[in-house]
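= Tokenised fold =
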Amino acid sequence: MPRRYRNDNKKEIMNNVVLVLTNFMRKMGRQNGYQSGNVHWLAKFAILCYLSTYILQLIAVFLAKGDTERLFECVSVACFCGVGLLKLYLLLSKHSRWSFLINQITLLENKQLNSEEDTFCLDYKSEDEDSENQFTPYIISYNKRFVAISTILVRIYVSTGVVYAVSPFAEYSFRKVFLNETLGYPHILPCWAVLDELSFLGYLLTIVAEAVAAIYCVVVHITFDITAVGIMIFICGQFESLRRCSESIGGKGKVCNVTAERDARARFRIKKCHRIHVILIHSIKELKELIKNILGVYFFVATFKLCSLAVRLKTENMSKMQLVTLVQYLGASITQLFLLCYYGDAVFNESAITMGQGPFGAAIWCVSPKIRRDIVILGMGMMKPHSLQAGPFNVLNLPSFIQIVRTAYSCYAVIGPK
């Protein structure tokens, strides 16, 4: 690949997976991104508000057991905040393992971008052999895909959070000014408002805690989801580039005579493909261990959250502002679940090759029988698919997403209005 073209491509990869993930981790309060477990004091204050309001939410759930509408409202928000606490714990307590995964991405990408491919191992000239870096276009492609997905996800979360936080105050102002109704103080989160009865200052303290908790909860969800989805996108893109790279083990196949130089280059490419494949498989296993338990809980919680939202849409007599807020919250919840399942399914599909792909599509007629045997061994190792799990029973894929939606609808049919 010409050096000028390579440098232009490097400029296009400035907003890569690692930089975006590190930026979101810093927004969550980690001072050095994934490289350190130090948490900023403002983040500690936000975590304290988060825990306090969540305890008040649980108390509100217990107190609302006689009010169906209030109960479903408290349960749906408590599920979202509870999963956020689990994500926060996982990001903070397992920071060394997350850092290891991010470092693997950085090292692998840098080596692929800066590599001269295998020109250094060639000591002959041939029109058949190309020395261009085959990884760069794929790295550019999946980095652009990640930036687009992360931008969309952030906009969905932020818009949903803003509408959800502002709508209680907007509705309170409208009904107070135009309808002259006597209402209680509005709240961002459905909590046990014990301080409202004491003084207006107590109400202000509650609102500040709720606002900080809501903002930090959204940031935690964004950070975890973008981190998990970003690593999945990286794995899928790398498997796609590995498939293309392994197809060129024997060259373009235009020159059929077997030479020692061509065998040496093919052996080098086999080792390189095997090394990349081992790194990717290890990354899948590490990511699976990190997200397996929390996604198992999330699948269980998401079912009841979707069910409670559907019941509220059907049973409650709500204003237009409440309806818009609830529909937007429902859409964001489904989008969050769909993205995780979609890219989990993509990892499963991209991690395996079939006949005619990868090493099985290489020009084996240009190499010696010994190299052909090594190519077959490499191909057999790349045929096994690898999946991500959500708990001990579910696989992170699109059928699981459909199953959750169906289960939520079944629960809605049972406990919903007749």
